[in-house]
Here is the input.
Amino acid sequence: MGKTLSEKILARAAGMEQVSAGDIVWVNVDIAMTDDVLGPRVEIAEGMKKIRDVVWDPDKLVIISDHYVPPATPKQAEIVKYTRDWSLSHGVKHYYEYIGPCHQILAEKGFDLPGTVIFGTDSHTTTGGAFGAFSTGCGSTEMLGIMISGETWVKVPETIRVSWGGALGPAVMAKDISLKTIGAIGHAGATYKAVEYQGETIRALPMDERMAISNMAVEMGAKVGLIAADEETDRYLKEIGVTTPYIKEESDTDALYCRSLSFSGEELKPMVACPHAVDNVREAAELSKTRIHQVYIGSCTGGRYSDLEAAARILKGRKVSPDTRLLISPASQSIYIRAMKSGILADLAEAGAVVMAPTCGVCAGLHSGLIASGESCLATSNRNFLGRMGSPESYVYLGSPLTAAASALTGYITDPTEVLN
Here is the structure.
């Protein structure tokens, strides 16, 4: 019987000829990432003092302050300061702050490599699966062990195969693929499983779009959200200057899957996740009477350059509804600069958008754009749990950047097909 992509990656990381779903193996971790929320100040620093206060490999540890920047309170400022000081005192070579959400930075800085094993103290570390990496989230206690030893144990997951065929329509994006898939599988339908996306629709997507899909795999409980590395992966990594050798793998044709689903890209419509669950998915056209008070385009899910470009395609030369706020947060400093130089940020600002720093603050409801009771926000981010972006009496909807821009234009959830030229 053939092997799946996750089985192949974990076998190599465990130094074994092969492993199978259900096996529990110890693996070497290629990259460990933590942030200001679940970083050194939470269990890790004190735990290391008790065991061994030395990082196993300072070159393989990445620490990113992204949730509490720019700090909105003295407490947040102290957290960022602690994270920074601890990183410097422990010789961490890769510490970043104020340049964007951690998952985008891991990709841009060349840490997401095919065939590697990546652990991060944020559930959306699954983003790295877009590069064909076994990239997953963990808690601070597990990260403590990884920081000291460079190893951790993993139960080899079963794999759900999700195939998408056919070309996407002009009003549809990867976010719609993700929401449609999550709606079909359910918020817990892939718990501790690998979800592997395959098919011509997926292969035609650029890395920006693939990252949005893998990012949200955890929203159906998945351990990883995998897309096999191919020529597009090579192109992206070469473009950002990666010279480190890597190993591309793909699932064998006779690999064993616990479940297989197939979807048509040609039939896909713009989708929206309704409050208060990511799998509460409906077509955007069905929600045209839903009032939206705020639109947020940003985060590690929906703030990449192609996302801003898509939004500007709708909003350039037009005006945001006077009764709706539009917040834009590019996913990284480099994306901010690129969009500024290309004129996209100017187009969005002239349409009435408020352009903000690259940060996790809005998505996680920490600062910079919280919503009040009774208000609704349509966001390109990844979660719409009760109270996620502010008041527990508010409502969060999730959609693609095209759907978000169209909704900002009208003040109601709007299928972008209606406003695209």
